[in-house]
Amino acid sequence: MASEFIRRRGPGGIGAATVREWTRRMRRGSAVLDLGCGHGVPISQVLVDEGFDVYGIDSSPSMIGAFRTRFPSAHAECAPVETSDLFGRSFDGIVSWGLLFLLPVEAQERLIGKVATALAPGGQFVFTSTLHACTWTDILTGTPSISLGGDRYRAILAGEGLEIVGEASDEGDNHYYFAWKR
Fold first, then answer.
1. What is the pTM (predicted TM-score) of this model?
2. Which residue, of 33, 84, 110, 124, has the greatest Cβ tally within 10 A?
3. How many angstroms separate the CA atoms of 169 and 150, rounded?
4. How does 73-94 read in b/e, with b if 16+ C-beta sit within 10 Å?
């Protein structure tokens, strides 16, 4: 699946413009964690291009290998996001593009809690999922995808001390939730 994913996700791919705009809220050089970074294109590429200290987590050895080749100065860990050691440090920003809904409900809730703990005060978090609660089969992986929906995500974020500061959709109909840590 890694080679097919890499083939489909190019440098100017969907999500790049939205993530680039999101970075405007942070100081260049800040530490940013990309959850489910894959091979790093286009999301980590935007972060590197914008001058951030990038950390990536992905559970696929093939994807992390491609990430490390593309970004030799970035920090990378091959692990499931649920058990990553990178949550033991602090980040100014965390991005999760196309990952959260691939996790079971309980794992999504725990991951948002880990994000809240790892974010520095004033830190920014952006993730994608649908606006409405629903379940579907991921086209590429064939695995179930579960969106908890906007109301539930907002409640989980608030319960973890994160405040929604905006929402948006992009040209691929991805819905973004922008939050910050008080």
1. 0.92
2. 33
3. 13
4. ebebbbeebbebebbeeebbbb
Supply φ then ψ for residue 145, to 5 degrees.
-120, 135
E strand or H helix at 34: strand 31-35
Which residues does the chain have with pLDDT short of 50? 2, 6-7
3-class secondary-structure state, position 169: strand
Overall domain count for the chain: 1
Domain range holding 61? 2-181
Tell me the C-alpha distance between 170 and 107, whole Å: 26
Q: In CATH, what number is assigned to the domain containing residue 18?
A: 3.40.50.150
- pLDDT number for residue 139: 77
- Run of H or E including 102: none
3-state secondary structure of 165: strand
| Cα atoms in the 13 Å half-sphere on the side-chain side of 4 | 4
Q: Look at residue 2 in the predicted model and tell me its pLDDT.
A: 46
Q: What is the pLDDT of residue 1?
A: 56
